[in-house]
Amino acid sequence: MTAKLTESELTHQFAVQIVSVYWTKRSRGFPAADKRNQIARAFPLLSHTGHFHVIERRDFREADGGEFACASIRTGPAMVLPCKIDGLVLEWRGNQLLVRLKWDKGFHGMPLRHSPSRTLTIAAGETAQISMNGRHSADTQWYTQHCYNIAFAETIAHDVFTRSSFSHLLNLEENLF
Q1: Any domain includes 27
Q2: How many independent structural domains does the chain possess?
Q3: I want to staple 173 with a disulfide (CB 3.0 to 4.6 A). Which of 23, 39, 128, 133 is the partner?
């Protein structure tokens, strides 16, 4: 049986852009840290050719000499809500979009964030940015920063994340050193 779509689901769109930066111990400090911090954390959306709900991912990785390069850009349609995207949980609540981040050790790293599941309520026409960093280890140690850019509106413009400041900011970053 197919669930009946709400009016918001029929008349509103959302876009999620995840900008991830990966680096190792060798580029923690100056001058590589300055280069890493110069990477934009929001970009114009790629063409999404009529999809109502869009997910876009941009991954930046450390390259030789402390430089950083965009390793991949991917875009595609989002799943039906409610859904979970790399720890980001989205769901409809009336005519608003509820957004929360559920900490995932494998994706977000350490240290453990006991309560990062604070809910943001995004009204039509608003945007939000949530940032999270982490330290990972296996055979080697590496670090990540993930910025989740979220837009909710009747129509989503390609420059929604770059034309003005975000309506909501949630910084869940920790001192990793």
Answers
A1: yes
A2: 1
A3: 133
